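Chapter summary example.
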Amino acid sequence: IEDGLNAWFQLFLDICVPLFQMVYYIVHGIFTVFKWFCQGFGWLLSKMGVCCKWMWRIIKKVCRCTGVIYQKLKGCLVAVIGGTLDFYYSILVNVTTWSLGKGYLGEFILLIFAILWMFWPLAIPLLLKNYYLFIPTGIASGLLTIKGYKLIQTASAQSEH
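The structure predicted for these 161 residues follows.
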């Protein structure tokens, strides 16, 4: 009987000791990783706090300088874009006043020029073969059509007087 109990005890030790060792290593590994994670996360939060404090100081100083620069740059861009659009609109007005004095031939030339002037953005997706660009170029063509219609009406009203 003693040999049988020793055999069972030996079998119990052969199974349970490695099992308990494996559980110990798993639990110890999990807690070690958790400890490293907490230490790293704490270090990261402390560095982020220092970085945020310094970035806030830099942003406040830079914003004081860039506020003036932004206003001047915005004024320049508005002037350049506004001047470019005024030049672009004046082309249609000048062609309209010129063509209205030429009779039917002038009206035919105005029709072709107005179509080209208003719908040229639609050529971009066709040339690039990026058909998803039809949405913004369609909007741009719609806006140019509305503006062109108004410009042609005002130019023709001015040329009649």
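To summarize the output: The chain has four helices and no strands.
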